[in-house]
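request received
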Amino acid sequence: MPNQPETPNQDCLSVPARGAILRLRVRNHFGVMTHVCSLFSRRAFNLDAIICLPIADGAESAVLLMVNENQRLDQLIRQLAKLEDVLQVNRAPEFRSAFESVAQCFTRE
Amino acid sequence: MKLTGAELIIRLLELNRITTVAGIPGGANLPLYDALGASSIRHVLTRHEQGAGFVAQGMARASGRPAVCLGTSGPGATNLLTAIADAKLDSIPIVAITGQVPRAMIGTDAFQEIDTYGLTIPITKHNFLVRSARDLLEVIPDALRIASSGRPGPVVVDVPKDVQTEAVEVDHLPAPVRPNPPPRMEASEIGRAAKLINDSKRPLLLVGAGVIAAEASAKLLGLVERASIPTAATLLALGALPHNHLLFLGMVGMHAARFTNLLLDECDLLIGLGVRFDDRATGKAAEFCPRAKILHIDIDPSELGKIKEPALGITADVGEALSALEPLIESDPRTEWIRHMRGLRERYPLMVPGTDDPLRPYGIIRHAAALLPEDAIITSDVGQHQMWVAQAFPFTRPRQWLTSGGLGTMGFGMPAAIGAALAAPNRVVACFSGDGSLLMNLQELATAAEQQVTVKIILLNNSHLGLVRQQQHLFYGRRYCASRFEAQTDFVAIARGFGIPAVDLCEARDPLAALEQAIRRPGPGLVNVPIAPEENVYPMVPPGGANRDMIGGDFDDAKPA
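response:
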């Protein structure tokens, strides 16, 4: 990240150190984000942050989710994997920095 | 060839051997009905879309094949929701095709516009909003494939009106759909499962709807007999083993026989086949089978470890797993364990008082069972009558018993019976119902009369929401709030008003002769059976309690059958 300041801007939001990062590959079409988000809400599971970008010429999307790490997370991952439009889901702690970069876009009120 | 989207849908359904659909036309699906009218598919016009959803469920549950229902946009779609949700909870393959306002009007709050896609996300296995007629070439086969593959479930296909009228050039139609192959099993896991079973002194099988969906009853019987394993069933799996098999324990859970729940407490290995450890089956989950290791086999990997952590969980089609297990299972009479089971059964049997009296719950069920043909299909609504039937009806084969388990939807029984009769036109279908349940989809009596299906409604009429009253009696200090119907409904007159022959057993000079006559007569019929509101379903595990803590059904208040 060329423009990333060396020390995080104190006015920016901070990313919680705890929590799990999930990486999804999904079919990029109408409604897929609703399918993913609604799965979390209807199972009363908190979804802290979402980053989503189209990939593969827009046929697919890559999604990063930051979620609570708890004993029900494995169940949520299995439920995610069952969604017809979710092609792949795995834990991806190495992408925590993506959320830290995004945090730079948001300042404290 | 040039086809409209509507014609394409109908052609694809025909190609996939969909011969009967249920539904109601309206503004946004009229193009589809126009194409349907010109096709070979039989349409069953219901009087409410929820009825159409349950007719489709009845067809799917009786046949094991996906079934289709239709509704228009807006209220047509919202009326379908309960039947779709019911299919989701019980893993039933139905495809609901709904009309939607034209594409350009989506998002404008147009007349009869509702976000069907958004509404059905949480209650479907998958859903589609079709964006062009060409997409239907993939969407309709995908919908049927998804509904019937793996763990079955409902799929919604929402089709805007102008997609139905859009013409597309089609070179050839896709081949008929085949379900996805089941997940691959690891041979080592099957080996470990066999070792768990062979090493167990006190194994117990708990079978669920997955055994029915996998058509695995014969293989199940092989395992049960070879390894001498007592077997209990969930509500939906009744019929997976014949009721009178010496190793069959009947239904598990909230209204199980005492000996069944007590034996579950003592097993050292619980083999869960195609079950999801529903709370009505397990009672307080932490205290379910406290001494047992759990071997859990299910086609849906998200069920393994969801409620109970298994010692070994295997993702597999139950039928394939049983086939793979068969050569590895040692023949074992398990004499001590079986003797213990027999002892418990003798000391704590299922109490079924009043079987000789056709005006008492167990009596009407047993008498009807004796009069119904061997191959009759049985549906129920939801409530006390459902539990009495589950306890006392002599089920002998899979797909004989169709009931709403997971969602517990009152109003399910009669339209589902119509669907079953359409799928199996040479059989008698008996629908046990209650007066509360029957009133929830009463309008489908018109459908039954119109189709002249052989559906016999046996109405256990206590002028109450009986299971609500029972809970108020047991757990709310006998404060009966809103569980009694003050106005008496004349169901015999109502049925006749719909053109359906009906009889009141209370008024019949010979109730048994009247019952027999009603069952023998072709076409639909209703038998009103007044029963006392004080009749309760026992035993009963208090909601949230452990299965061993059962109320009633003891020698104190009943005599053995």
